[in-house]
Structures are given as C-alpha cells and as structure tokens.
From TrEMBL:
The keyword Nucleotidyltransferase does not apply. This is Spore germination protein. InterPro entries: Spore_GerAB (IPR004761). The lineage of its organism: Bacteria, Bacillati, Bacillota, Bacilli, Bacillales. GO terms for cellular component: membrane. Keywords: Membrane, Transmembrane, Transmembrane helix. It comes from Paenibacillus taihuensis. The chain crosses the membrane at residues 5-26, 32-54, 75-98, 135-154, 180-199, 211-233, 263-287, 308-328, 340-363. Pfam families: Spore_permease. GO terms for biological process: spore germination.
C-alpha cells in the first residue's frame, strides 16, 4: 500500500507543472520566489510527515470518520462540506485550464465549453467509481504517462537552447524574503498526501509508510524544474509573458524519434490523461466528503453497486464546473486560483495540526488500553 500513497504525491506535484503554479512563481522571480520555494519545501515536507503520523494513528479511517469519533454530526457536517468544496475547486481549476489548453493548441475550432463538457462527463463517471477502483485508476494513469513525462523533463535539461546563465541569474535573488502568493503556489506541490484524507480507508491496521524521504525528493525536483526550465528557454524577461508557460516551453522542444517531433502535442496529450485521472480522483474525494454530511452515512471501500448518491453528487460537480467556466474568463480563473491557493495554505496548516493533536490523543488511548 506504500506505493498508493506516493502515487497521490506524484500526481499532484507533476500535474501542477502545467497549471498556474509556475506562472505565479515566475511572476515573483525577482522578488521572493526562490526563498518562497525553500520555505515551501521545509513546511510542505513537515506537513506531509505530520499527516503520515495521523494515518498511522487511525488506520482504515478517513478524515470524516476521524472527526465523527470526537464530534457530533452538527459540528462535523459543515466542516466536511467545506473540505469537500476545497477539494472540488482544486480539480475544477485543473480541468477548466486544460479545456482552454486543448482549445488553444489542439483543436481551436471547437469551443472550450464543449471540450470542458466532454471532459467533465468522463470525470463524472470516474468519480462515481469505488474508492478502491479510483486508486487503481491513479496507478494505471501514472504508469502509462509518467515515464514519458520524465523523459521529456530530463531531455529539457540537455537541450542546447537551455540558457543556464539565465537560470543562475534568477537563482541569485534567493536573499529576497518570501511572498505569500509564491509560497502558496510552491507549497501546493507538496500536498499530494492530502488525498489520503479518504484513501486512508484502504490501509490495514499494521500499515507502515516507508521511504518518506521520497516526498521532498520528488516534489523538490518538480518544483525546481517547473520554475527554472522555462526561464532557461525563454529568458529572464520574456518568460513572464505566458500564462500557461509550460505549454510554450514544450513547444520550444523537438525530438528526433520519427513522427514524434513536436514535443508540445505529446506533452499535452500526456498531461490530458493525468488531468482526467486527477480530476476524477479528487472529485471522488470531494464526493466522499459531501456524502459524509448525509444522515446515516457509511463509508464503503468497494460496494457491489454504485450508490445513487455518487451519481447525483458527481453530476452536480460536473455541471457546476461547466457553468462556472462559462461565467468566468481566464483572468478571473487566475484570480480564483490564486485566492484558493492562499486559502488552502491556512486550511492545510489548521487541519493537519488539528488532526495531529487528535492522533496524539488516540496514541495515548491505545497505550493505556
């Protein structure tokens, strides 16, 4: 079961390569992005380690069941609904962003709303599957896509067009103090562990998480790559001109493997697969939080039949995503994503520390018994 935890960490860190995280970091490249990334690596790793302690103290239980052990329904229901909304927004931002990318780079003749509607239908179906099935979907998605993505990332460092002087120039600004926007963007790369707020239900009582040193290693590699490689390709000034900076960066690379020449098409297709897997996975997590608010809610890891509530909640999530995309433009989406990232920082720290305190109490009870 160790690998499933690291699947969640990997998919969150890698997917944000194509979203607003690199853009927000690059905007502060002279004014605190480097120190923000260093701080994010420290605090993000600490939060991840604390959360793994919580998992060990409550094997087989998700966050809704943990809260239900200590608080009445009228207290836990609003909290679970709020957490469900936080997860839902993260996946909707990703799906909406990729609908725009597909419309812009792959199929400009089709409306982004039509593309988003089709993607939402696929994600709704994936979200309604069982918790066990969803973690298997994440595994298959990563196995099929991550090796090619890593190959492209490593080849980017060997590209003759990469300007190492531009990267070293930006690195000299590490003394500037961190900024909230940059820190919120950078630390989000370390939050893949939060998927186990629901998937901890799959862990047996004797579960032990090993190789935790992989968390900072993987996340720091993705964070450094997402920030410095675009600067090396586009320069210290021009790099700030692009919203989806990695789509343009991928378009700057070529490969000599027969018909596989333009990297951007392969890169976008690979990340399209990851975005569908991620959105279906996170919508499932949000759905489980919303279901925990219902009376007589009972978690099921792998039910024989898909509950009707799964379809109702998932369809509402998909419909809300499409309607929101119709009402907001790209600038408003960016503002929403930035504010959500800042809010998520506060929610993450409070949630993890509070769960950590509960886990210490649970460990004391086990020793006393």
């Amino acid at each position: 079961m160790n690998r499933y935890f690291y699947y969640c960490v990997t998919i969150v860190s890698m997917l944000n390569l194509m979203m607003f995280v690199p853009y927000l970091l690059i905007q502060d490249r002279y004014t605190g992005a480097i120190s923000s990334m260093l701080l994010a690596a420290l605090i993000g790793t600490t939060m991840a380690f604390l959360f793994t302690f919580v998992m060990k103290a409550f094997p087989g239980k998700g966050v809704p069941e943990i809260f239900a052990m200590y608080f009445p329904k009228w207290v836990t229901a609003p909290l679970m609904f709020f957490l469900g909304c936080m997860y839902f927004i993260s996946a909707s931002i990703v799906l909406n962003g990729f609908a725009v990318l597909i419309n812009r780079f792959l199929n400009p003749d089709t409306s982004s709303i039509v593309v988003l509607s089709l993607l939402s239908l696929a994600c709704v179906y994936g979200a309604t599957r069982s918790t066990l099935t969803n973690i298997f979907i994440v595994e298959m998605g990563l196995i099929l896509n991550v090796p090619l993505i890593l190959m492209i990332l490593f080849k980017s460092y060997r590209n003759s067009n990469l300007d190492w002087d531009a990267m070293l120039t930006i690195a000299q600004y590490w003394r500037n103090p961190p900024k909230l926007n940059s820190y919120a963007a950078a630390v989000y790369l370390f939050t893949g562990y939060s998927g186990y707020a629901i998937f901890n239900r799959l862990n047996p009582p004797n579960f032990r998480l090993r190789y935790r040193w992989l968390i900072p290693l993987v996340c720091c590699f993705i964070m450094v790559t997402s920030f410095f490689v675009p600067i090396g390709f586009h320069g210290t000034e021009a790099v700030a001109s692009y919203l989806y900076v990695w789509s343009v960066t991928a378009d700057s690379m070529t490969m000599e493997y027969g018909f596989l020449e333009r990297v951007v098409f392969i890169f976008l297709l690979l990340y399209l697969n990851l975005s569908l897997v991620y959105t279906a996975n996170v919508w499932h997590i949000a759905m489980e939080f919303f279901k925990s608010c219902l009376p007589k809610a009972k978690p099921q890891i792998d039910p024989e039949r898909t509950p009707l509530s799964n379809w109702v909640i998932a369809c509402i999530l998909g419909l809300f995503t499409v309607v929101t995309s119709y009402l907001l433009d790209e600038k408003q989406d960016l503002r929403l994503a930035t504010n959500w990232l800042i809010l998520r920082v506060c929610v993450e720290v409070i949630s993890v520390l509070f769960l950590f305190v509960l886990s210490i109490g649970a460990g004391g009870k086990k020793q006393s018994t």
